[in-house]
Amino acid sequence: MNNSKKLFIPSLIGMWLFALPASAEEIAGEWHALFDTPAGVQTYHFNFQPKDGTLTARAVVESADQKRKVEFEEANLVGNTLSFVERRQIGDRELRIEYTGKLGDKELTLVRKIGEFGSQESAATRDIPKPEPVSAAPVVEVKINRVIKDAFKDSFRIGTAGDLPARYSDQELAIAAEHFNAVTPENCMKPERVHPEENTWQFEQPDALVEWASGSKMSVHGHTLVWHAQTRDWFFRDGDREAVTLRMKEHIATLVGRYKGKIQSWDVVNEAINDGGDAQTAKTENLRDSKWMQTIGPQFLALAFQFAHEADPDAVLYYNDYNIESGAKHESSMVLLKRLLADGAPVHGVGIQGHWRSGSVPFEEIEKAITDYASLGLKVSITELDVTIRGASGGQFGGGFGGRRSRRSTPASIEDLNVQAADYAKLFEIFQKHENVIERVTFWGLNDRRTWRWGQHPLLFDANNNPKPAYAAIVNDADDAREEPDSAKQIKIEDGGQGPYSAIATESPALAGMTIYRPEDLEKLGSETKLPILLWGNGACANTTEEHKNFLSEIASHGYIILGIGLLNQIESRDETSRQRTQSSQLITALDWIIAENARPESRYFGRVDSSKVAAMGMSCGGLQALEISSDSRITTSVICNSGVLPGPSPMAAMPALKKDDLKKLHGPVLYIMGGPSDIAYKNAMDDYARINHVPIAMTNLDVGHGGTYRQPQGGEFTKVALAWLNWQLKGSKDAAKMFIGDDSELKRDDKWTIETKQFDR
Ligand code: 9MR
């Protein structure tokens, strides 16, 4: 290894020095890399051989279902930058996969780019990397009451898109047939694919799809006949209007004719209107300057519809586009459709594609667009529905959105999944309201792996085919979805605790990803007693309360409702889902939920909760989550266990990024319960204590270290202190205050504990 490489380490001052070119020898030999690709994880075992100024590159590639050998082309090494190309035949399609790499100190950072499918980055090393355990378990387990096609069988069809059945697993094919009753070929009937040259047709995949659909009792929606994209230049050769019109006619007649009676509807023209627009263009059709426009002119649309109608007079014919529900583009679509109808073009329906983004779905515009199109006597379908969780929206292929960005798939958070679920539920409420106009709602892909928006989790099934909260939100009856059924799982810990109420740990379908600790028999509370609310975040910000279950259950048995971050089933036996990342905002969502339940007459929590008494609590990383939400005006008190704000940026990405300044946002009394000087958070907590001079604060320490006493029977000594504090702060118990206040406070008298307090006498 030459010394220049070491200069990449930023802690060395030599940033002004530059790396010398890598010698070819340094790259010679074996390198291994894992790529998380749209087709699953693939492990590349590369072999690079430099020879006389040239480079040969080959690899053995392992994936879940195959092992293949690759000879790379165009291999090149300049300085420490490497590039080569893999050509891969997938079905009838040749993919060009471009690799670029930079040689670092120990690693070779490789970017793998697959044209329109985006790119992935991976660090190749000399050692074989171990695949990260990829969890097949969902972030949150979802129960669905009905399959979606049945839920809407009296309203409209529910479709999926994909070039089924080739290269789909048996499980995926079964899911497609079970949940959907319509299919749209995602790519295989596009002009470029099905009709690559003037007299060359590729019917193998379209035929297979139509046959599979008929065997699966699904209708087929053809996509797409006339489009500015994915259409080879031969169509427009010579630019002669007549010749181009003839080619279009022949294309449509052959394709629509072949599947006459088998394909029930077609996207005849796709995406003909320009993006954006303004008050001026809104008054016009604002047609895209496509090759169809350039050669045939604006009549190309009416002609396409006419040819399709001639080829299959029974087929329902659609104009299909994205963003036509909104703004100037919507106005233009109305101008265009009115003209086509006035000219007698056989247009029967409008496809609103529906590539939306959760958190910003234009509900009102969508509803208005549906009624606008209906007013023209047209049917409406939602043809390419997907609602992303993160990232960009937009629906145009090749427009720089979604399709070509670098994509690394990080799991969706429960919070994001819930926002998406609420958006999907609202969309389907709108669709159902207009069921007399809507023919079909088709999702653009089958699951979160089989989607052009891979990495943005847009569909109803996750990448492992588990139904997501969005699915339940759409199909589960509004009441079913909210109600915690009597059959909900209930776990008793330590016989329900020692308080006056026997406690259980349970969950509610409407509060995904949270564990609820509460008295089992809520009736027993009578009409006077109301439960204060405790919000709890776990050590390591884990997705389970397992470590703290004794502590939490015991507190609940004394008349509290605790909403703890984490999956209920992980209390009994933990697997890797318990390590999934969680977010402070889950606590706020939970607070909103319980306050709403307390006010909802049909809820079991109706009138049972004291919404004006709320504690933000948590341990270690979860203590930071509690601090993070403590600025919320509804929080009465904060209880920070084995935790404190770090002096600098957190080393763990999953930790809330808090600054010491954030302590100023605390507005209620604060209790720290710490494990003494050997607790790794001790210094941070003591420093917090020194800085908090504006609210009452108690700092308590028991010399047990960072782990606390949570696992001891009833949660041990920590429960005693936490419970006294809660009884004092949330239930006004003067007796409980004696644990903390006065020269002879219980904790002062207790040798095992130390206590300091400030600002209580103000
Ligand atoms: O999802 C499709 C993707 O696999 C293709 O690479 C791309 C280009 O053919 O088209 C995608 O589907 C588009 C659809 O055909 C028309 N509306 C926008 C869709 C997303 O880009």
Short description:
The protein is α/β, with parallel strands linked by helices and 762 residues long. The chain contains 20 helices and 28 strands. The model is unreliable at 1-21 and 391-408 (pLDDT under 50).
Task: Report on the architecture of this protein.
The structure is a single chain. This protein is an alpha/beta fold and 762 residues long. It folds into 3 domains: 122 residues, Lipocalin (Beta Barrel), CATH 2.40.128; 316 residues, Glycosidases (TIM Barrel); 265 residues, Alpha/Beta hydrolase fold, catalytic domain (Rossmann fold). It is built from 20 helices and 28 strands. Strand 17, helix 11 and strand 18 form a beta-alpha-beta unit. Helix 6 runs parallel beside helix 8, helix 11 packs parallel to helix 12 and helix 14 runs parallel beside helix 18. It is globular and about 100 Å long. The chain starts with 23 loop residues before the first helix and ends with a strand. The structure holds ligand 9MR. Ligand 9MR binds next to loops. The site of ligand 9MR has 12 residues, from loops.
- Structural class of the secondary elements? alpha/beta
The N- and C-terminal alpha carbons lie at a distance of 66 Å
In DSSP terms (H or I, runs of 4 or more residues), the helix count works out at 20
Q: Into which percentage range does the β-strand content fall?
A: 15-25%
| Backbone CA Rg | 31 Å
Oligomer: single chain
| Bound small molecules, deduplicated | ligand 9MR
